[in-house]
Design goal:
about 375 residues; 10 helices; binds flavin-adenine dinucleotide; alpha/beta; D-Amino Acid Oxidase, Chain A, domain 2; FAD/NAD(P)-binding domain; 18 strands
């Protein structure tokens, strides 16, 4: 019901049971809605998001189209099994192919730049370099690409080059997906925070006593999932990013990773740098789902820009922001039933540009 009660006309128009309601209009939620509607053209599909636009991670990320560095793989093997990590790598690769194929490279400003994992300590580099053979064999087997990683150097730093990496424009990615969703007839309700759900009845409680009903619900709220489903263990992790003002010359062109992926940077066009991450230097504070900028992390990244990247004297930040990621214990996303008629798909663990669309497609197939 709504506070004022329905008029005769409103009841017919709004008091309906949707075939599918997706909570969360980020990459995962919008992909779920899109593939469900494509498979079921007559279905009534609604996406509900609390924001004026999606406000989580999908339009606040760094736009790396990547599937993992050797440093990250080594760290991941300390917390997860080899078979699950291999599955995740394959899913990331397939996810990126699906994303690019569905939205089109031009529409999302995809650039095949190549990427590098850089090192400041020789011992760390040696540890990663010694694993190149192993991970190249995995890549050949999992995704059919030879020599995925190569020992190299970049700007005088020991590095492992990753020629298959690229970058994209996350805003254009979500914009294009929204356009596709509208073209197939998916409905959207923005500015609609969901206050609670009944996962068995597939109903949502919103503000002003509005209740929405569906035959199936998909909860794609990533880092914010535990607010609706407190027993789902998705840990929030805040990420900080800034973009510099234009510089006369930039020496770093492509996507760059440092320290197991905790720090990342890329060129933005011809004259700017995007630099982000650093969550690990104040991990506990950053386990929050509140947006905000941690001055300690900002200082760490500014120093990184000066000391490791050796950005030109006088460089300045033009814009800075935060986004919230959702992590599972093992970093493998959750896709599971949360009640009779509800599926939860969350915990993309920091690499959702690669995983989000594929995961959304799988969620759509699971509720079809
Ligand atoms: C700073 C940063 C940098 C990143 N860089 C990269 C990168 O370079 N490459 C990469 O692959 N990945 C990157 N990621 C990760 C990637 O952006 C995410 O994994 C991905 O966007 C997650 O998508 P999602 O749709 O699952 O979640 P989100 O985009 O967070 O969407 C969740 C949506 O749910 C909505 N919502 C939440 N609660 C409610 C509620 N109660 N009612 C209604 N709506 C609600 C939110 O408003 C939000 O729109 C980065 C993330 C961050 C934060």
């Amino acid at each position: 019901m709504i506070e004022s009660g329905y008029s005769y006309w409103e009841k017919e128009l709004y008091d309906i049971t949707y075939d599918l309601i997706v909570v969360g209009g980020g990459l995962t939620g919008q992909s779920t809605a899109y593939f469900f509607k494509k498979n079921n053209p007559k279905a009534k599909v609604l996406v509900v998001d609390r924001g004026f636009f999606p406000i989580g991670a999908s339009t606040r990320n760094a736009g790396f189209a990547c599937i993992g560095t050797i440093g990250e793989h080594i760290a991941d093997l300390e917390i997860d099994s080899e078979s699950r990590l291999r599955a995740r790598i394959k899913n990331r690769y397939q996810g990126l192919q699906l994303l690019r194929g569905t939205l089109g490279d031009d529409a999302i400003n995809y650039e095949h730049t190549g990427g590098w994992e850089i090192f400041t300590e020789e011992a760390e580099f040696t540890k990663a370099r010694d694993q190149i053979g192993k991970f190249n064999a995995w890549m050949k087997e999992l995704i059919g690409i030879e020599s995925f990683y190569k020992a190299a150097s970049y700007q005088g730093k020991p590095a492992i080059s990753i020629p298959s990496e690229g970058m994209l424009h996350p805003g254009k990615m979500i914009g294009k997906l929204y356009e596709l969703n509208r073209s197939v007839g998916v409905e959207f309700r923005w500015n609609t925070p969901v206050l609670s759900i009944d996962p068995d009845q597939a109903t949502l409680q919103c503000e002003n006593d509005v209740q929405l009903k569906a035959y199936q619900l998909v909860i794609a709220t990533n880092a914010f999932t535990r607010r609706l489903l407190p027993d789902k263990v998705i840990k929030p992790g805040r990420g900080f990013v800034f973009v510099t003002k234009p510089m006369d010359e930039i020496k770093w062109k492509g996507t760059f990773h440092f320290n197991k992926g905790y720090v990342y940077f890329r060129n933005l066009g011809e004259d700017r740098i995007l630099l982000g991450g650093g969550r690990n230097v104040d991990q506990q504070t950053e386990e929050t789902d509140q947006f905000g900028i941690n001055p300690y992390i900002k200082e760490y990244l500014v120093n990184f820009g000066n000391e490791v990247m050796e950005l030109p004297q006088g460089w300045e930040i033009e814009q800075e922001w935060s986004g919230i990621m959702g992590f599972t214990e093992s970093k493998t996303p959750t896709l599971e039933k949360a009640g009779k008629n509800t599926l939860v798909v969350a915990g993309l663990s920091g690499m959702g540009v690669a995983l989000g669309m594929q995961l959304g497609k799988t969620a759509a197939e699971s509720v079809s």
